[in-house]
UniProtKB/TrEMBL annotation:
UniProt source species: Xanthoceras sorbifolium
Cited SUPFAM superfamilies: Clavaminate synthase-like (SSF51197)
Cross-referenced InterPro entries: DIOX_N, IPNS-like_FE2OG_OXY, IPNS-like_sf, Oxoglu/Fe-dep_dioxygenase_dom, Plant_2OG-oxidoreductases
Residue span(s) of domain Fe2OG dioxygenase: 211-311
Protein's name according to its UniProt entry: Fe2OG dioxygenase domain-containing protein
Recorded family membership: Belongs to the iron/ascorbate-dependent oxidoreductase family.
Keywords per UniProt: Iron, Metal-binding, Oxidoreductase
Length: 359
C-alpha cells in the first residue's frame, strides 16, 4: 500500500524516510540533494533586524486575562492578536513547571534513544501515528530537515498504545499529564476567543473539553547548510488551536506576516498559540490561520512539542451563526468534521487547503 506507486492523493500516511538525526550525527559537510530546497524565501524578519512593533509577535498574559481588573484590556489584545497575526506567545499560563520540565526532558530522552529503540514506535503503513515524517507521498519529493513523532493523546480512547513509546519509562505518563494541561488551556482560550468574537462560548468550550488532542514532537538536528533546507515547509495548521512549546532557546519557528517571515524569539516556558483553519472558518475569516514554517540551525538542534487541538467531532466545521447576516454572508462552507478531515487528507499539496473551503 505504501510505496512509490502509492495513491499520492491521500495524506493520511507518509512514506518512510531516513532519520535526519542519524544523518546529522555523521557531521556531513554538505546536505544530500533530497533536502535542498532552492526556492527558500529568505525575506526573514527577526526582532533583531526590525524592532518596529509590527514585527513583534504579540504577548498575552493569562493572569491578566483572568483578573477582572485587567480582563477587558487583555481580551482586546487577544482579539487583536488573533485578528492581525493569528498567534501570540502566552505567558503565565498556569501549567505547573514540573509538567513542562518533565515533558521537555522526556522528549529529549526519547530522541536520545538508539534509532532501533525509537523505531519500535515507527509509523505503520497507512498511518501517520508514530515516529517518522508527515506528508511525504513520493520518492522524489524534497524532505524536511526534521524527525518527528506524532501521537493521538485525547480523548483517551483514541490513544494507540501500541505506538506510544515504552521508553523512556516515564514518557507515557508525562505526555498524558501534559495533554490534560493543554486541554485546559485550549478550553480557556476557546472561551476568550468566543468572547473576542462575541459569539456563544459555552458550546465551543464544551467542544474543546471533549475534543481531540494530537501531538507532534519535532527534532530539528544541526545542519551544515541551514539556508538551503527547510525544517517544516510553510503551512497553516488544520487544527482549531495549536499550542507549541519550545524546548530550548534556539529560534526556528517563523510566521508569515504582511508578506515577511517573522521569527518567534523563544521565551522560557511560554506557549506559542496559533489558530488553525477550523478557527478561521468558525470566525468567518475574522481570524486567519497564519502560515508558518521552521528553519534550522547550523550548530544547535532544536525541539518543539506541538499540540493540535480540535473541537469535538460532533460539531460541524463552519462559520458561527452569530457572525452571519445578510450583510455578512458566510465566506466558508459548513462541513461535518468528517467531511472537513476528508477534504484535508485528499487535498493536493499544491493548493492551499483553506481555498477548498471558501465559498
Ligand atoms: C507543526 C509546526 C513548527 C515548529 O508541527 O505544525 O508548525 O517550530 N511546527 O516546530
Ligand atoms: Ni504547524
Amino acid at each position: 500500500m505504501v510505496g512509490a506507486e502509492a495513491d499520492n492523493s491521500n495524506l493520511e500516511w507518509s512514506l518512510p524516510v531516513p532519520s535526519v538525526q542519524e544523518l546529522a550525527k555523521q557531521q556531513p559537510d554538505t546536505v544530500p540533494s533530497r533536502y535542498i530546497v532552492d526556492d527558500m524565501d529568505c525575506s526573514i524578519t527577526t526582532v533583531d533586524t526590525d524592532s518596529s512593533d509590527d514585527h513583534h509577535v504579540p504577548l498575552i498574559d493569562m493572569t491578566k486575562l483572568v483578573n477582572p481588573d485587567s480582563h477587558n484590556e487583555e481580551l482586546q489584545k487577544l482579539h487583536s492578536a488573533f485578528k492581525h497575526w493569528g498567534l501570540f506567545q502566552l505567558i503565565n499560563h498556569g501549567v505547573p513547571d514540573e509538567i513542562i520540565r518533565n515533558m521537555k526532558e522526556e522528549i529529549q530522552n526519547f530522541f536520545d534513544l538508539p534509532l532501533q529503540e525509537k523505531k519500535r514506535s515507527a509509523q505503520k503503513p497507512g498511518s501517520l501515528e508514530g515516529y517518522g515524517q508527515a506528508f511525504v507521498t513520493s520518492e522524489d519529493q524534497k524532505l524536511p530537515w526534521n524527525d518527528m513523532i506524532f501521537l493521538k493523546a485525547l480523548p483517551v480512547q483514541n490513544k494507540n498504545v501500541s505506538i506510544w513509546p515504552q521508553k523512556p519509562p516515564k514518557f507515557r505518563e508525562t505526555l498524558e499529564n501534559y495533554s490534560e494541561e493543554m486541554r485546559k488551556i485550549a478550553v480557556t482560550l476557546a472561551r476568550f476567543m468566543a468572547m473576542g468574537l462575541e459569539i456563544e462560548a459555552e458550546e465551543i468550550c464544551k467542544a474543546y473539553q471533549g475534543g481531540r488532542y494530537e501531538v507532534r514532537m519535532n527534532l530539528y538536528p544541526p545542519c551544515p547548510e541551514p539556508e538551503r533546507v527547510i525544517g517544516i515547509s510553510p503551512h497553516a495548521d488544520n487544527s482549531g488551536i495549536t499550542l507549541l512549546l519550545e524546548c530550548g532557546n534556539t529560534p526556528g519557528l517563523q510566521f508569515l506576516k504582511d508578506g515577511r517571515w517573522v521569527t518567534v524569539v523563544p521565551i522560557d516556558d511560554a506557549i506559542v498559540v496559533n489558530i488553525g483553519q477550523i478557527s478561521e472558518i468558525m470566525s468567518n475569516g475574522i481570524y486567519k490561520a497564519p502560515d508558518h514554517r521552521a528553519v534550522v540551525n547550523r550548530l544547535k538542534d532544536r525541539m518543539s512539542i506541538v499540540m493540535f487541538c480540535y473541537p469535538d467531532s460532533s460539531i460541524n466545521v463552519g462559520p458561527a451563526k452569530e457572525l452571519i447576516s445578510s450583510g455578512n454572508p458566510p465566506l466558508y462552507k459548513t462541513l461535518t468534521h468528517a467531511e472537513y478531515l476528508h477534504t484535508f487528507t485528499k487535498r493536493s499539496l499544491d493548493i492551499p487547503f483553506i481555498d477548498l473551503l471558501k465559498i
